[in-house]
Amino acid sequence: MKHIINLHENINDTARNNSDCPHVVLPEEIFFIISIIGVLENLMVLLAVIKNKNLQSPMYFFICSLAISDMMGSLYKILENILIVFRNMGYLKPRGNFETTADDIMDSLFILSLLGSIFSLSVIAADRYFTIFHALQYHSIVTMRRAIVVLTVIWTGCTGGAITMVIFSHHVPTVITFTSLFPLMLVFILCLYVHMFLLARSHARKILTLPRANMKGAITLTILLGVFIFCWAPFVLHVLLMTFCPNNPYCACYMSLFQVNGMLIMCNAVIDPFIYAFRSPELREAFKKMVFCSRS
């Protein structure tokens, strides 16, 4: 977010005087390379689902939604690097109208990436819940039409939310709303997990008779959720500290890792497709066909 990054830069000068922690700076080339890899990997996930009819199911559509979220996070960094290059070459006027508009668009992509990931993971969790505990009625409950409607509502709401947050990003309530969505998503999924655990205890035999793929999907979700928390939580914490204790030396020390936290977000987009491929034989087979067909 432009306003968060600019505020971070302004605060850093004051906070650095109160902290002995040096500001960690990572080469922009690393961000660019990781972002390119993230876009290409998630694009492969989308193409694999589009080209293979056996993958065109609600579950894989929800995975595609998460892949689009990851791709937007990577695309944000690619566009930012390109903008920096043009500005350094003198083609763009610093803080000019075009750069301000471009920054707002890129910030919207960044926020859309987070919101899309949050709601995509939530809908994947709900899908896994119906798969395990309503296996017989699953195909009548989670239809393709309903999946498309849900995803349309999610992305429409996320787009509107991202634009609104960029417009009002300098207000504290907006920051609180932005950061509160992260724990709310965790609470929702945790409640589903607790409910699934309680049902599993009372339906132990029934769970054992379910196809292994159903339980494997729940494990995949757990891994995706763990990676998401690990990669995004440091940045969310950074935003909170920067808003409520910018001049505290301990907060300033943590905020010196701003670029490291940004790198973790970029890595999330690279790791997720490996999780899909490792956990899904169908998707892994689709990847192999895409690679070998393109070579031949």
UniProtKB/TrEMBL annotation:
GO molecular function: corticotropin receptor activity
Compartments where located: Cell membrane
Membrane topology summary: Multi-pass membrane protein
PROSITE patterns xrefs: G_PROTEIN_RECEP_F1_1, G_PROTEIN_RECEP_F1_2
Presence of the UniProt keyword Lipoprotein in the record: yes
Nucleotide-binding found in the keyword field: no
Keywords: Cell membrane, Disulfide bond, G-protein coupled receptor, Glycoprotein, Lipoprotein, Membrane, Palmitate, Receptor, Transducer, Transmembrane, Transmembrane helix, Ubl conjugation
Annotated Pfam families: 7tm_1
GO biological process, one term: adenylate cyclase-activating G protein-coupled receptor signaling pathway
Entry-linked SMART domains: 7TM_GPCR_Srsx
Annotated G-protein coupled receptors family 1 profile domain residues: 41-276
InterPro entries according to UniProt: ACTH_rcpt, GPCR_Rhodpsn, GPCR_Rhodpsn_7TM, Melcrt_ACTH_rcpt
Residues that span the membrane, as ranges: 30-50, 59-79, 108-126, 147-168, 180-200, 221-244, 256-278
Function: Hormone receptor primarily expressed in adrenal cortex that plays a key role in regulating adrenocortical function. Upon corticotropin (ACTH) binding, facilitates the release of adrenal glucocorticoids, including cortisol and corticosterone. In addition, MC2R is required for fetal and neonatal adrenal gland development. Mechanistically, activates adenylate cyclase (cAMP), the MAPK cascade as well as the cAMP-dependent protein kinase A pathway leading to steroidogenic factor 1/NR5A1-mediated transcriptional activation.
Family as reported in the entry's similarity comment: Belongs to the G-protein coupled receptor 1 family.
Assembly: Homodimer. Interacts with corticotropin (ACTH). Interacts with MRAP; this interaction targets MC2R to the plasma membrane. Interacts with MRAP2; competing with MRAP for binding to MC2R and impairing the binding of corticotropin (ACTH).
Protein name according to UniProt: Adrenocorticotropic hormone receptor
Organism whose genome encodes this protein: Canis lupus dingo (dingo)
Gene that this polypeptide is encoded by: MC2R
